[in-house]
Design a protein that fits this description.
about 260 residues, 5 strands, Triger factor/SurA peptide-binding fold, Chitinase A, domain 3, two-stranded antiparallel ribbon, globular
Length: about 260
Amino acid sequence: MQNFNFRFLAAALLTLGVAILGACGGGPVPNGVDPNETAATVNGQAIKMEDVDRAMKQQTQGQESRLSPLELAGARLQVLQSLIEQEVMYQKAQKDNAVPSEDEITAEVNKRKVDSHLSAEEFNKQMNQAGFDEKSFRENIKKGLAIQKLVDKITGKIEAPKDQEIQDFYNGNKDAFVKKKGIKLAAIVIDPANSGEGDTSTDEQSARLKANDIIGKLKAGQDFASLAREFSEDQSKFQGGDLGYLAEDDLRQAFGDQTSASLML
């Protein structure tokens, strides 16, 4: 689906009646859970466990089996929160008659197939690997288009700022438009704590061995982002270890003066 500021708009547009059931709560979903089991309801509309699992596959790029039980539980809760927010927006779109027609949905489906540059067989294979069949794929696109229409409708009502208002805002916030000295940081995080099943670094010694092994792979020329996705024990692994741009002041607060100075060099 498209990325929007769901959290802000959902809070502003609709008062929720949300019930979150225990399946996505204090731990990972056990094996054998019925995919039709309800994970949460939004104003009476159920979000199924199969919806959560499908979104998990997309978010983790099929690497959910590499997560520790604690990481898996946290990721599931994040996914569920996102699905709830999307459902809020879709229900608002329904009320505002912003739901696309079947022809519009078909046109978008065809566009995505063309843009993928895949054969029909390969496209269907990747769609199935992501947990979709033709019906659920169309439903996903339907919701995405509806939410986009709603956002366009809302933002279209916002009056563009006047030139003087823009100038006044700039004059009062010049520091915000200056990119501060800092670094773009990425990391492969090795945690010596035992995170549960599948964790191979459960103490200082095993963590050091794992870190040295990764350093060896990096020196041999292996890709940093790929190694981060495979070995890092932090949610940033899904972005190839990318932690984003950090200004020097933020580095000092996060890592202390000495480490910050080393990183800046």
